[in-house]
Amino acid sequence: MNLMKTLTLKNLKLNRKRTIVTIVGIILATALLSALVTLVSSFQYSMIEYQKQKDGDFHVKFSNVKMSELSEFKNNRNIESTFETMGMDFAKLDGCKNEDKPYAYVMATDEAGFERGCFKLIEGRMAKNEDEIVIPRHLKTNGRIDIKVGDEITLDVGKRYDSNTEGVISENCAYEHEAETLTDTVTKHYKVVGIMERPGYGMEDYSAAGYTFVTYSDELAAIDNGTKSEASEADTTLTVYSRYTQKALRNKDAVTADIIGVDEKLFEKANNSSVEMSSEESDRFLKEMENAKYDIYMNGYLINYECVFPIDGSFKALFTVAAVVALIIILTSVYCIKNSFNISITEKIRQYGMLASVGATRRQIKSSVKTEAAMLGVVGIPVGTMSGILASLILVKVVNALSAGWLNVALSFHTSLPALILAVILSIATIYFSATGSARRAAKVTPLEAIRNTKEIKIKSAKLKTPAIIGRIWGIGGVISYKNIKRNNKKYRTTVTSIVICSVTFIVISYFMSMAFSVVGMSYASADYNIGINMSCKKDIDIEKFSKLLSGIEGAEDYLVGAGYDFDVSKPEYTKEYGEYCRQLYDDGEDVSQMFLITVLDDKSYDKYASDAGIKNAAAGAILVNKCTFDVYNENSSKYAKKEMELYKYKAGDTIECGYNVYDDASSDDNAVEGGTESSTEDNSGYVDEETINNGVRKTVDVTIAGVTDKVPIGYNGYSNTLLFMNQKGFESLWGDGKNGNEIKPGYASYSAYVVAENADEYQDTFEKETEENPEYSQISFYVSNLDKEMRDEKSLFTLLGVFAYGLIVVIALIGITNIINTLSTGMELRSREFATLRSIGMTDKQFVGMVRLESVFISVKALVIGVPLGILISYLLCVMMNRMDDAIIYEPPYKAIILCIVVVIMLIYAIMKLSMTKLRHNNIIETIKNENL
Question: What is the pTM of this model?
Fold first, then answer.
């Protein structure tokens, strides 16, 4: 056995070129696998860290825990660690602009709480004693109260008392307005030492009535340090944030149910979305939760991210994709590395025959091949693993550079020992499967067959028949080239397959990338603005004043402010085509009512729009947009197709009766509908019937059409409902005749603004700064859409995907190229006697060069004839799949990718063949023919 190992090692040293190529293949395969597992591990780690910062480093939050019960959590073997917070109650904030959040909620914690809670400091430091406090940033941005680091504040802290229920209101309950007051207040003085981001949902509910202020607790610190007993403050109530052990995390529902004292099976069933509960079980569960020992909040995302098994929905897709990619890598690598071992066996087949003739057993020959694989693996796997880790580190930095500014999660580089061990095991498996077939083949060859070396070539004479056109065009060199490829079909099959795999992958991914960028461009092409602003407010917004704000910001090239009101029109005057479309759409035999959106524009925008539409005297009424594009179903093609239609028969001067509902509060006389209308249902008792509460009281106004157009102002491209545009004066005149009372209540309109900005990013920053600092807009919630940034972000996302995709192609291509180099160069060396013989009987250098070039052409053409059509077919199928979601994509083959692919393949094969040929041309003909080792 030692002799076989010595021979194996000597062969590897003698065949350095093939050994290096094989090792490179193993390094690339291992590097891909280790990079894959490292990236998956890094992504999982990044998501865990992000969730810890966002919601806190805990799995389950237990509220209303008495101080005396804290030891039960500390000593629970299922709980890895805990940190605690203590509620110090609420204080009224003077000058707070958010009517639904008028309090400061004072919370106390210690070092563990500051470190593991979701308190992200943005200025100053955390509190270190009970006289210091940290405030949230949204106190200024949302509440419009500007408190700075270093300021001293006084808070009258007390409990929220509900006069309706005559009970204390908990910290996460919404503000009850008139129903609640603060009781048992105590004055406290604090120095602000830091400003933090708003705490996560686990610490501050989005509907909470108070901004979370955090101070230090000497009491909690003393308990954690063991210098104070829980029993000394037995009645104090805490909130305990607990981290479960990995074992407990797998059974989190059973562990949590046991702690809060509810039925484990029922709790587990209620938290399993795939299992449906009966109404009886739901009622029983609700009763059990009402009587539970503690209120709980589960940090679900962190649990899913940290729970490795069972794999939950959050990472199932990621691990599935990783498994598929790993399988592709293994199959590709096995195929390519296996070829290296097959070539090695072919080279040494006579040697194995000689060894078998002198007593070497099949087992020993198999062991020799496997030993060779092990020796190559010992070198290739460690280098590949380190290369994969280095590649992952570089890729993480590239990802963070590309995603800066639009990805909320910064990808952190993280290596996991179990993941790397898995990569090494997969690499060993790859090498094992690559060598096993070759070892079996080497062991099966009999000594006589091996010494004669005739088993490699078995082909019927009919298969070597050469088309006459090859001989006519290329002569004897072309015939020999063609016959050689047919005769050595198995050897060249690996080369052809490698080229096909790389070509198809490159063409498909190139098409996907070009399609992705074109889809992004198409999705934003119809937008005639780059800043969109939606506004939400309980009061009406002065659109003229707001338009001055927009126009006053530097860089505004065009702008529009609109207030949209929905009206219904009973049986409008449809055109024949649109009427039929509506009846089919709503499956109604008669003309159906239609919703009309009347948008009131600022005066400047309205005048400009009327001028562009060519409508004179537009102030006298409304401008009707009378054309729209719809997705119409075609029964013949069974597809939806876009079709432009004229909507109505209305013309300038016509009147449309627009209806709207007035909704009344049944409990308030102030909002009652005035008598004298046919629809009024209120009597002297203040009663409003159920129909009025549900449907409101219908009112109508007559809207005069000032003009009809197919143009829309900026921001309204793509709307599929009926649009009417008016100015503020014209809209107010609808109620100015004394016949109609304007009962559209404040907050009814939907406000929006659209801006064409020279630099959208700078404009957005200035707008947000000005609205934050202006108290006039404190009650308005702004939702700003920066289309330029959104388009950049989407393109960056696809660029990011492209980095991964093209990176995968490059490494697979490198594996394939090493395999091609190995196959072609070794094949040329093995045929050196053949070439020497041909030259000895009169083949000139020119004929020899032509023959070799023809072989490279035949190999390239064969690979491209298969690879290019297959790539086009798969890219077309990809387009068809995408068109199921959107019919707008027209398939166009990726010509640039195809041409590049053809050029690279031909150049690659030609370069490899030429390098091998150059070496052979300098060999001595007689010495080469005499060489029996080839």
Answer: 0.67
